[in-house]
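Lecture 7 notes. Example A: sequence first, then its structure tokens.
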Amino acid sequence: MKIKFLFILLSLFLAVSVALAASYKVITQEAVIRKDKRFFAPMVTRIPYGELIEELERQGDWLRVSYKGQDGWLHISAVQEQKFRLSSLAGDRAQESTKEEVALAGKGFTPDVEKAFRNKNPNMRYDLVNQVQNFKIGESQLLDFLRAGNLREPGGAQ
């Protein structure tokens, strides 16, 4: 009897702890964990789109998270909180998004959407769009630009 009661109590504790832990899904192409609560603080690591992460702490719009053993700060705009629903355990299906809705939410194109857009706009220079998408600026170049222009970082911790 004691073992059964202990098992029920442990199961209840586990369910409550899972429900209380905030879980987030990365909704940007990649999210960057930083050493401090600033957009241009030194980078700790990158998290790819779709990864799930757990919140360790929250301060304003910044989450302290851990990903593959590396801790740091992530802005809330890069993630979406995942809701835990008991109905999902009972077999009910959650409402799912279409590919088109996900593409629009991510401000991107699926191959089908892009093909339809190309058919409607045959004279558009897609090579230039690809060139812009592939243009990368390193962290140090960005920080040099901010310093040279005497620009201040928005929304970061002071």
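Example B, a different protein, same format:
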Amino acid sequence: MNCIRVALLAGMSLLGMASTALADDQPFLSLYTTDIVTAQEREVEQQVLFSAQKPGQAFASILSRTEFEYGVTDDFQVSGYANFEWERMHLPAAPADNEREFSVSGEAIYRFLNVYFDPIGLAVYVEPSFGAHERELEAKILLQKNFFNDNLRLALNANFENQWQREESGGWHRGSAIELRAGAAYNLTPEWSLCAEFSNENNFQGLVGSAHPVSNLYYLGPTISYKGLPLTISLGAQAQLPWAHDQTHTPGAINNGFSTDAERWRVGLIVSRDL
């Protein structure tokens, strides 16, 4: 747990070094809008995601991501992340298993259509990640539509992800995911917004294009976001819905509609500040 405290303190110290400015508006916890930083703007962001409860075991995980964003142009943003993940699993009649993983990520977002000048917002997102035991390559299509003088924002993300996990033999296990995330954010006041987020997560054995389906999961939950000088803060929670499917037909993989291999609850906090 000392590693977790160090990761959180490092991220918050970066936020404290920032000057007074207004961050770009990303009110959601689990999906992106097409609102990105403009040319030469810089932003630092700290994310913390807590996940818990799997049927039949004591489970908890914490993911910390510290990000630096830079606007190359008004429509092109690049970022770098430092990631730390801690996970604890405890099956009955077995010793607890604790795992830690440090990794780094790069991110690039290019916006083709700006929702404030075009009928919709459209952007593409690419993120490679590298760790000692994990590799990931993620691509997203980002869509946004605003209504009621931009007070209501609808966002839709289509995510495609390839994953490589190192096995004890030294080889790599290959997996992938295709996710559809949707959200609605409504401005209660100029500073406060209330969001609803929904996600459908499809996991596969093998990489995208040559994969076999494994599971199909759904999550839903609220997020509240504060946008003011100089911070943007989003706090949200999501629950797994009892609609899970297991395409491998493994006995015990589904319990009362919930996947036994996926967390039931997620709680997340995102704090960002312009430099």
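Note on Example B: The CA atoms of residues 57 and 93 lie 10 Å apart. The chain has one domain: 2-274.
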